[in-house]
Specification:
Blueprint: H1 16-24, H2 29-47, H3 49-59, E1 64-68, H4 81-85, H5 91-100, E2 103-111, H6 113-120, E3 136-138, E4 144-147, H7 163-173, H8 191-202, H9 217-226, H10 235-249, H11 257-270, E5 272-276, E6 280-283, H12 285-293, H13 297-305, H14 313-329, H15 333-339, H16 341-357, H17 363-370, H18 392-405, H19 410-414, E7 418-422, H20 426-439, E8 464-473, E9 476-484, H21 492-495, H22 503-523, H23 528-533, H24 541-552, H25 558-566, E10 569-571, E11 578-580, E12 583-585, E13 598-600, H26 601-607, H27 610-626, H28 642-667, H29 672-680, H30 687-697, H31 703-713, H32 716-721, H33 724-733, H34 741-748, H35 752-763, H36 769-775, H37 777-783, H38 793-818, H39 841-852, E14 856-857, E15 859-861, E16 863-868, E17 876-880, E18 886-887, H40 891-907, E19 927-942, E20 946-963, E21 967-976, H41 988-1001
Parallel strand pairs: 3-7, 9-15
Antiparallel strand pairs: 1-2, 2-17, 3-4, 5-6, 7-16, 8-9, 8-21, 10-13, 11-12, 14-18, 16-17, 19-20, 20-21
Helix pairs in contact: 7-14, 9-10, 9-11, 12-14, 13-14, 14-16, 14-17, 15-16, 16-17, 20-41, 22-24, 22-25, 22-27, 22-40, 25-40, 26-40, 27-38, 28-35, 28-38, 29-35, 30-31, 34-35
Length: 1020
């Protein structure tokens, strides 16, 4: 039996080549990874998810906050146009200068470690920047006084931008910026544009060819805001721009649509578009439209937002061309907008065609825009006129800030990101300004002044009024109102040097009572026996009065002594000639009825009588010179006192230089012939005097030259009588070299210094003053040789007294300066007691503040708070540092002066203001003050001190006042120019004006203001 089986067929073997081919089709790992990386990169480039995650994570660690005190966690930018313009780069310097000036940092920003780290890497601070800023000035309650906003015209938000403007900008600069398909899109890099720019950079190019860049709007913002000079200086700078823009885009989270819209908004509001005369640097489309084209920003936006058929195509095309040209001009703004407008026109025309091809605009708008002529406004931007009088208080603050911050001027100041809280009270400023303006209206309040001693004659509209009011709050005096009606930038209260007349009596009285107080301190505790042994100098009337009073009343208090000092009696007679200021002077009273009176000092102050204060000032000068602390008690009596020779030498040098300068001014510009004529003019001449003078001027001249001078200067009859023999005798008999210049001066009747100077100028016409001064020294000493002879004691003492008076006024000035006197010196004359040394309204107010504060000098503030960079990582808030008041007057002196000031209002020259101020409950506030009237004149005197000509150059009247326990100030009426002589007002005018102002000031007379302790809320 047999069996069978089905054979198994084996699969044929695959060729080796086929096996190898199959293995090659499997992708290698690296390729898979590369493809995966490419896919991820493609997705990342389209979605930016990874960038969003990283940047958002970093952005969450970026923060800052405002905290009390000075910050150690703060960093300031060092460059960048935006940071420089807003003052951020200068903040460290500002803070240092303000601290030196008495301010201190009260609040300052603290930055997070991440923000500080990024800034240390060279990135700008990452935060939502304010691109519109400017100096804001507020009153003490936060009410706006002035607010600079730059740019002035801007888009408020993205929705306010016409879509046509957005589409045009994006087509030109950043086409993918607002793409909706990727909410996390990084707006900083546009990859296809960057690639195209990179390839173009590698390709050959012709010289001068402009190549497209890869910058987006985001990096352009970073560049012109924060890169040094507004330029990209290298790859490192470009990387910093990209890094900063990326972090800024993700500050609010991974979704960047709102950030991208903000980029468009910020770019249009801040793009730099050159500078224009009358405006300055232009930032943003809005200001540029107005400055370059005179276009109204709102009208342009309305035209571009309207439907194409709803308005005239020509107006719409003009508006569009203007905006398009500005968008294009940002590439080279100074060239395209200033120097090469033809290139801008061609560039605009090319882009109109491209925009129509891309569908951004239609053909109708393109053609109309091409047919439109782009017109530029001619000349400088017209400045908007603001009344100087209306902004005077604010301008004073701005001027102070320019000085405090050391900025070049108000242009730079107004563009700082800063808020200033002043001490001013806005309602009071406005009310006072309105009243003062009405006083200049003959049909208004000005018409009520037409009465004797107010404004009996003269045009009310030409009178300038100035007013300042201060309030004591805590340890400081705060300026509450400062107004003047002068329609010029000049500030009358702070800047003008005015002859304020009798207000100088207030300074004189304060100084006198201070001297009495010093003597009381020196002597009151001494035993009676010691007091009797003291012998005051015979010229020290003040010392003698104090000693006599102490001897009579050993237990007298300082207040009682000061009261007695005010009761001293002085003659008001103007008959006396006073030797002062180097010569004899006669003074007069305002009211001739006072001339025969003898009155107490209190009465003289009450009624502002001049002569008692002239005599009081003479006593002050003598006390400073010869009193217990005097500097020259024996110099007039002791011929061997070493100070005597020193004073005489000093007088010779002083008067010699004085005369030399006078003669130099007289002869410098004359010819030799004119000098000779000027030398003899007005003098009685004889042949011998003329011969000696001529030989002194020109010792080398011959007989014929001398003869010509004599013939021209002598009267004709006398000249004809001179024979040739007499002329020869005169010529040979006069030998100038044998005589000193002092002798020649005596013989000719010509001052020896003038005689020498004429000869010197004839031979040295180009000599400088320094050369003349040096060459004249021997002559000047020779001219005064007679004075140094000891037997001429009277003549010496007369001249020493001139210098003693000058030295006394140096010391008097030092005491006046301690009490706020504003100028560097006093006129060394008794006339200073009645106003010859002038004053300033603000300085008088400071003196009233010292009296009001019981003798304490307090800091005076016009600024309560300075806040820089609010809402930024650089935010800094400063306030004036508290200073301990300085006692500059004894309490008793201040009280005595205050009582005298109150008496002036109750019974004296300011009586018409009595009862002007009261509280709501009917209580009258105490009102005191000092009036003063002054005429500035140019006076010319002839022989014998005879007044030949008097020309009025200005007239002023002042009332320095204090109200209640806290308020004080000054009001002044002023007329300048030759027409000042037409006005007849006195100090009654400012007194009446203060009375008229009382209702406007009532609000400030209530409860004292409080001092701020926390930062004010930020205002938009």
């Amino acid at each position: 039996m047999s069996s069978s089986a089905t054979p198994t067929t084996a699969a044929p073997a695959r060729p080796a080549a086929l096996r190898r081919s199959t293995r090659l089709k499997r992708p290698p790992v690296w390729l898979v990874l590369a493809l995966l990386a490419s896919l991820l990169m493609f997705v990342e480039l389209r979605t930016s998810r990874l960038q969003a995650a990283i940047a958002t994570h970093i952005a969450r660690e970026i923060s800052f906050r405002l905290e009390s005190g000075k910050s150690l966690a703060i960093s300031f930018p060092v460059s960048g146009p935006h940071d420089e313009r807003l003052g951020y780069t200068a903040l460290p310097g500002f803070i240092s200068q303000l601290e030196t000036a008495g301010f201190e940092v009260k609040f300052q920003a603290r930055s997070s470690p991440r923000l500080l780290e990024l800034m240390s890497w060279g990135l700008p601070a990452i935060y939502h920047e304010k691109l519109r800023a400017g100096l804001a000035i507020e009153d003490h309650m936060g009410r706006s006084l002035a607010h600079g906003r730059f740019p002035e015209r801007r888009y408020r938000d993205f929705a306010s931008i016409p879509p046509l403007v957005v589409e045009t900008l994006l087509f030109i600069e950043n086409r993918e910026l607002l793409a909706q398909d990727s909410p996390q899109h990084n707006p900083v890099i546009e990859w296809d544009r960057l690639a195209h720019a990179s390839l173009t950079q590698l390709a050959p190019r012709t010289p001068g060819q402009n190549l497209p860049g890869g910058s987006t709007l985001a990096t352009q913002l970073e560049k012109y805001l924060h890169s040094s000079g507004g330029y990209t200086t290298g790859s490192g700078d470009k990387l910093r721009q990209i890094g900063a823009a990326t972090l800024r885009a993700y500050l609010d989270g991974p979704d960047t649509l709102s950030a991208r819209r903000r980029i468009v908004l910020d770019y249009l509001n801040s793009v730099p578009l050159a500078a224009r005369a009358g405006f300055g640097e232009l930032r943003g489309i809005g200001d540029a439209l107005w400055a370059w084209h005179g276009a109204d920003f709102a009208e342009v936006n309305a035209l571009l937002s309207a439907q194409p058929d709803s308005t005239g195509i020509a107006r719409r095309a003009r508006a569009y061309r203007q905006v398009l040209s500005l968008i294009l001009a940002q590439r080279r703004p100074s060239d395209l907008l200033v120097s090469d407008r033809a290139a801008l026109r061609e560039l605009t025309n090319r882009h109109l065609a491209l925009l129509e091809q891309a569908g951004v605009i239609d053909a109708r708008l393109r053609d109309a825009a091409l047919a439109t002529l782009l017109e530029f406004s001619p000349g400088a931007v017209p400045a908007s006129h603001t009344s100087f009088a209306k902004t005077k208080g604010v301008d004073a603050v701005r001027a102070e800030l320019v000085s405090l911050l050391d900025v070049p001027g108000t242009y730079e100041l107004d563009r700082l990101d800063a808020r200033v809280t002043t001490t001013l009270d806005a309602p009071t400023q406005t009310a006072v300004r309105n009243v003062l303006a009405d006083l200049r209206d003959p049909q208004g309040l000005g018409g009520t002044l037409l009465e004797p001693r107010l404004l009996a004659r003269g045009d009310p509209s030409k009178v300038v009024y100035s007013f300042s009011l201060y309030e004591r709050v805590g340890d400081a005096n705060l300026l509450r109102a400062q107004v003047d009606t002068l329609e010029q930038p000049f500030n009358v209260n702070r800047g003008m040097k005015l002859d304020l007349g009798s207000t100088a009596k207030l300074r004189t009285l304060v100084h006198y009572l201070s001297l009495v107080s010093n003597l009381w301190e020196r002597w009151h505790a001494l035993p009676a026996q010691k007091t009797r042994q003291i012998t005051p100098h015979r010229s020290d009337a003040i010392g003698a009065f104090v000693l006599e009073t102490l001897r009579a009343r050993p237990q007298i208090t300082l207040a009682e002594l000061l009261d007695a000092a005010l009761e001293r009696r002085f003659s008001a007679s103007p008959a006396t000639l006073f030797f002062t200021g180097g010569g004899l002077h006669r003074f007069a009273n305002f009211d001739e009825a006072d001339d025969t009176r003898v009155m107490t000092l209190r009465t003289a102050f009450r009624h502002s009588v001049n002569l008692p204060f002239v005599r009081l000032m003479r006593e002050i000068v003598d006390h400073v010179t010869f009193g217990p602390e005097g500097f020259a008690s024996h110099v007039l009596d002791d011929l061997h006192d070493p100070m005597r020779a020193a004073y005489l030498e000093r007088f010779v040098a002083w008067e010699g230089r004085l005369l030399l300068d006078r003669f130099l001014a007289k002869h410098r510009k004359l010819t030799p012939e004119q000098r000779s004529a000027a030398l003899f003019e007005g003098r009685r001449v004889t042949p011998r005097k003329l011969a000696l003078a001529q030989r002194s001027i020109d010792p080398d001249a011959d007989l014929y030259a001398m003869r010509a001078v004599l013939m021209s200067e002598l009267p004709e009859a006398a000249a004809e009588r001179l024979s040739e023999a007499q002329l020869q005798d005169l010529f040979e008999g006069v030998e100038p070299g044998s005589l000193s210049y002092a002798d020649r001066g005596w013989l000719t009747g010509i001052h020896p210094i003038e005689l020498w100077l004429v000869g010197y100028l004839n031979t040295h016409p180009a000599a400088s003053r320094a050369e003349v001064l040096l060459a004249s020294e021997p002559v000047r000493r020779d001219a005064y040789a007679w004075l140094l002879k000891s037997r001429l004691r009277g003549a010496q003492n007369l001249r020493i007294r001139i210098l003693l008076e000058q030295d006394a006024f140096v010391r008097i000035h030092a005491d006046w300066r301690r009490l706020g006197y504003p100028f560097a010196s006093l006129v060394p004359s008794l006339a200073t007691a009645i106003g010859s040394s002038a004053d300033r309204p603000d300085a008088l107010a400071e003196l009233l503040g010292i009296v009001q504060s019981d003798g304490l000098r307090r800091a005076t503030h016009r600024i309560e708070e300075l806040s820089f960079a609010e809402g930024t990582p650089f935010a800094t808030l400063l306030r004036p540092r508290s200073f301990q008041p300085e006692r500059v007057l004894p309490h008793e002196v201040a009280q005595a002066v205050r009582a005298a000031l109150l008496d002036v209002v109750e019974n004296g020259t300011a009586v018409r203001a009595r009862g002007a101020f009261s509280l709501p409950d009917g209580t009258h506030l105490a009102l005191g003050g000092k009036t003063g009237t002054g005429d500035n004149r140019i006076e010319t005197f002839g022989p014998g001190l005879k007044l030949e000509r008097s020309q009025v150059t200005s007239r002023s009247a002042t009332f320095a006042f204090l109200i209640g326990d806290r308020h004080f100030g000054v009001i002044t009426a002023y007329v300048e120019g030759e027409n000042a002589a037409e006005y007849g007002f006195t100090s009654s005018l400012p007194v009446q004006v203060l009375k008229l102002l009382a209702p406007s000031l009532a609000g400030l007379m209530q409860e004292p203001a409080s001092v701020a302790t926390a930062p004010r809320p930020k205002r938009s």
